[in-house]
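User: Some background: our group keeps a shared notebook of sequences we're curious about, and every so often someone picks one and asks for a predicted structure to add to the entry. Today it's my turn. The entry only has the sequence so far, pasted here. Could you supply the structure so I can complete it?
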Amino acid sequence: MPETDLGENARFDYLSVPVSISRDVLDERSPVRLSRTCQFWCGVGFACFHAIGIAGCSWLPFGDAHRNQVSQELNEQARVSEEKGNLRQATESLTRAASVDRSDVASRVNLARLHREAGHTDQAIATLREIVELTPDDARTWYELGELEYSRGNNLAANECLELALRYNPRMIPALMLKGELEEKRLFDKQALEFYHRVLALDPGQVRAMFKIARIQLRQDEPIRAALLLRTICQCRGASEAEIAEARWLLGLAYGQQLRWEDATNSLQIALELFDQPLPGELYYLAYAQYRSGQRYDAAQTGRRILRDAPDHAPARQLLAAATEDDASIQRVAYPGNSPPAARVPIAPPGWEAAGAPR
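Assistant: Of course. Here's the predicted structure to add to the notebook entry:
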């Protein structure tokens, strides 16, 4: 059979070869001759390419869908295990779910919660770190991470986390409160007050923020401003009995700083009646206020009560001696076998040192 010149076209597109050319000639002379294996794989490739074009790459999400299904099944197993009280099995299921789907935030949120409840702080922090890598603008997770770092004493890391939490949600009250506590711990009372006041601007009835502010004001010798907040707590319907007792106690301290001894006595008495078991140091505030308000008999009674529980409480002994200096029989009870101290002036309790010497 005569040779046929394929021309330059044969070098580039074997599909354009004239039909009249025999297969033998094509096999023998064409520069683009393909082996049967190569032709097969080219066909497969062309079919795949065509399928992708038609289906719009519908096969690509298959792996994600499978991982999501496995993760959901493991999450359900964890939920059932937790309801049955098997927290260890629940934790293992969530750990597997998180490893199967690297983008599964829900599994990690529940896993961090279980770690926290079990007291596994390091694991909880590690899991929360994974969450913020996936969702860096999640203010709640940044707050929880800061809370854990703060509980471990990592104040620098806690501060960074809380600042990020407040960047993404400036109105998050728990983060504002914890940021205020952190500033207090760093002895930055001014900055702490700013955060507590931001809380009250968002929630005027936030009792905990009022307490924080009042305590700082008492430390800064601003009892009038502190008393205003404390009276508000006492009148707050949403305050618990324990909170009212605490507010009454601090209010008594504020009155003492103002030399309002009768008011201090009344407020402290109400608070101590609400306390389960008043400590000797707490009772001494009442005894001192009673003494300063002229209620010497009541002061002596409170002094004896202190000494029954704490016989070595020197300030109570001194106050009792001052309150009963004209009653020798009471002095013998107060100081069996010993002489009363020469100084009969009661010692002011902490916070009231600037109130001046009693008359």
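Suggested note for the entry: The first helix runs from residue 23 to 29. The chain is about 70% helix and 0% strand.
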